[in-house]
Amino acid sequence: MKTQNKSRLRLAVQKSGRLSQECFELLRQCGLNATPSKTALFYRVSNFPLDLLMVRDDDIPSLVREGICDAGILGEDKYREEGLNGREEPDLPLFKRLGLATCRLCFAVPKESGIEEVSQLNQTRIATSFPGITSKYLKGLGVEAEMVKMEGSVELAPRLGIAEAISDLVSTGATLEANGMKVLQEIFSSEAIVVINPTLQENESSTYQEKFEILNRLGTRIDGVLKARDSKYIMLHAPADKVQNICDLLPGIESPTTIPLPGKPGTVALHAVCKENLFWETMEALKGIGASAMLVLPIEKMMD
Known about the structure:
This protein has three domains: 9-100 and 192-228, D-Maltodextrin-Binding Protein, domain 2; 103-190, Periplasmic binding protein-like II (D-Maltodextrin-Binding Protein, domain 2), CATH 3.40.190.10; 231-298, Alpha-Beta Plaits. It contains ten helices and 16 strands. It has helices at 18-29, 60-65, 76-83, 131-141, 157-160, 174-178, 199-202, 206-229, 243-249, 280-288; strands at 9-14, 34-36, 42-45, 50-55, 71-75, 94-97, 103-110, 125-128, 146-149, 165-170, 181-190, 192-196, 232-239, 253-260, 267-274, 292-298. The strands form three sheets. Strands 2-3-4-1-5-12-6 form a seven-stranded mixed beta sheet. Strands 9-8-10-7-11 form a five-stranded mixed beta sheet. Strand 2 (34-36) and strand 3 form a beta hairpin. The longest helix is centred in the C-terminal third of the chain and has 24 residues, at 206-229.
């Protein structure tokens, strides 16, 4: 399909780091071929009406809000923090969750602090890169604390005497452990999300309607990749009278197909999509009720 005469969707993407890498892999799995410009700050997708603008994650909300980009991919932590700047709630519509770059925003304290509950943070200093989210959360609990804004190495704040606790992103917890700290409580779980300019939904002009259609097409492809990520295609032979037992064992199974096997009366071939990973224990249980010739295959993409 020719797209050079159609409007193109402009998507803001973090220019470096883990999220950037995962976004490009996701787009590749969506079948998109992105070619960088000479500066590598702008990518044009040759086989889909989409352009990518590579920017700092801090700049993505404002670029989308001002209409320079139609949509953007960023961490939910950045979305919430930037969106709370003078507002009760973030103002950019959330289009889709991507399940990428997952992490947790948590309170953490030194292990020897004696602090065991968030209520004990009342009247303390908390070092964080997310003062908006942290303050709102504590306010909901009736806890008052002083926010000490830090952009990096937040876990060092208690050791330096800057704060008694921190509110920071936690992935594996190894950094906290290395600095003699422990997680006190999770504030929220973060993942990569797609946000859009409100005009894309509200403006009825043909240009915006066309761009919104492109966005929805992209969203359908992303859904197909995400659905396939943890799904597996399973094929096996089984006694016909054990099909229901087998279905009961398969996690998240949807409408299995059964085919009689020529020359083997009472035996069928069963093909099914499972929406969860199959563990060895499940395979062993299937074998125990008569399943054989089992194959479990990854799925690259799906579309309902």
